Amino acid sequence: MKPRRLLATTMTGGAAAALTLVLLRRRLGPLRLDRGRAALRLFVRGGVRYAASAPRLFVAAGEQRQLLREDLALQTAEDVAGTLGAMKGVMMKIGQMASYVDGGLSPAVRHTLARLQDSVPPMSAELAAQVVTEELGVPPERAFARWDPRPIAAASIGQVHRAVTLDGRPVAVKVQYPGIAETIAADLRNVALIRRMLRIAAPAQDVDALLSELRDRIGEELDYRHEAASQRLMAAYYHGHPTIHIPAIIDELSTRRLITSELSGGARFAELATWPQHERDLAAETIYRFVFRSLYEVGAFNGDPHPGNYLFHRGGKVTFLDFGLVRHFTSAELQPLLQMARTICVEHDPEAFRASLENAGFLRPGAPLSTQEIVEHLAVFYDTIREPGPVTITSDYASSVVRRFFDLRSPVAQYIAVPRSYVILQRINLGLFAVLGELSATADWRAIAEEIWPFVHGPAATPMGQAEAAWRVRRHAIAA
Amino acid sequence: MTADLYATATGLIERSAAAFVSGVPEDPADDGLFGPASVAWRVSTDLATPVAGLRSLLMQALHPLAMAGVDQHSGWRRDPVGRLAATSAYLATVTFGERAVAEQAAARVRRIHDHVRGVDAVTGRRYAAGDPALLLWVHAAQVDSVLAAGSLFGAALSAADSDRYVAEMVAAAELVGVPRPLVPASVAELGRYVASVRPGLSCTPAAAESMAYLLDPPGLDEEVAEIWQDVRDAAIAVLPDWARQMYGYDAPSLSPERKTEIRQSLGVVDAMFLGQPGVLEARQRIMLRMRAGRPA
What we know:
The structure holds two protein chains of two kinds. By secondary structure, chain A is an alpha+beta fold. Chain A is built from 21 helices and twelve strands. In chain B, strand 1 and strand 2 (about 125-130) form a beta hairpin. In chain B, helix 4 packs antiparallel against helix 8 (about 130-155). Classes of the chains: A alpha+beta, B mainly alpha. The interface of A and B includes residues 23, 85, 88, 119 and 199 of A.
């Protein structure tokens, strides 16, 4: 097979697509070009499905409980190993992370990945209590003023319980399955088998970037302290922000296998979809600001920009949950991204754009392509911010981004690669835009981007921008 | 060579999964031959099941008359996957089905066996598939393989549970027509029986050819084929030395790391199986009945 690389391949999309082929046994041929829309539908459906079982959506807890099969509960660490050992936990993680990043997936693989997730029952009350006891030194009834022994939701390699701290704060406690970290860590060492799955997914000659990123990110998720640290960082940065809210971590009740955080309410994504367009636009603006401010100012990107990770409040206020998949960026890693945005959106300099792509490692230097071809291929990713003025992000646009992502037929595709550092950022395209498209969100995205781009530092473009500017002044005043 | 003689293995997982699902009743009138508290139920969804299945076939094929019966009658070359799926369906029905359904399935098998008679080209001996001696070998090879595969790649049974399993399985042998007194009822008896049959075993051309097909079935996707190699290595690793020598296979090296790798591949195979329609629900039905039967 002719070696190829694709911008399309996210680490998780890649792995999941690999599974597709493993599972299908029949050659699929080139990843389909017409899957964009299906992928987005799945994203939204998957989002809702996930939302129904996600850790974070505590509002309709009664309803979620129905979904948790207590009669099948995992009762021992051996049950956990039987359900999630022997690569199944790894595949499930891949599937979980890929459940909406699946522009190249066949229905059969989607189904298999979903089934894997469905196959994991909750821990029994006793088993969950045992983990809490091991982590905190005392049983949950003593560590907390109130402890709900019944989980309210499934979580990444664990489950969530509602509790009240000894000093009276309502909290959500994420409890990790016992033994799962060791099992997954051992399975992640079987690089050959994971590569075998990735190889088909990414018809790229170099799956190593994907593989190592995948292993690192999953590896981090096994130690909840990484997630707590990321959430703490975000909560500290956004403290006092007018519309972005990050639940506080309760340090003394958070360990390697336990994360205790402030309990949050709010509407779920499905409910937001029923709100007036104005509210949806505001929510979209907040999400957009959150994604790019986090990236360019905190140097952190939440690789799970998922509807299940948002809780919505009126007036554009959004609570962001789940920081298990955060990647941190150095400013050296961010510079090329800014350079690309600046050359194509602000300076309108195609040759400089091309050079910045090459510098960043996205485009093979000396590719026998005209600069115009390259710009045409990649400009779609910048469509919403190339010109000032209000733009509505539609599902069609989001689909076209996904299609371009998985477009292997373009002559440009074979000269494009995603350097390892940026693999996770592909989720901006497949995650963020899919959410905004689903909301049919309208805003002057360019003006908002200019507020955030450090090379512009544009003026406040919206009322939310003004409130944010005031918050930034307060922040700096406190810092100074 | 083998690819010319046999149809491809396309759909192996899909059809085995469908066969399994068909054997697990939704609302059974009784607990069937073994019941939820049995060892037979416990081992039936073990990760090592594909290894046990492949080892069973490797062992069974070494009986020249059993092999001749399959080779000359079963249509196995035309539709190897269908033949394997039919066996899977039968095993699932006997294990989990209602007693009456299991008996009907066995009666059907006995009727088919009535027509399977002939002369083995290699030994010149006459055979009949209904011959209890042949049926017993097929039975014993399977029971022995479940124990052998489980001990290395699955949830190994205690000595007591292994004995219990062999004893439980006597009922399955009886069902197809082996008189109960002939059937080994403990691990020790099973071992003695296998040793007693061994002088009559050999790797006939039909066995060599059909097993070469099974170990490297054409028509699998490249990546599945790579995973199948691990299943194959595992099955060969758990064969008795003498059986491996009859086939002329080298003993695969089985470092702890290699064992882990094989288990991981088996996990991937299991996940593929789980992804097939109805498999998760069938397993949950089994699990719930096992839990309901367990003293609280």
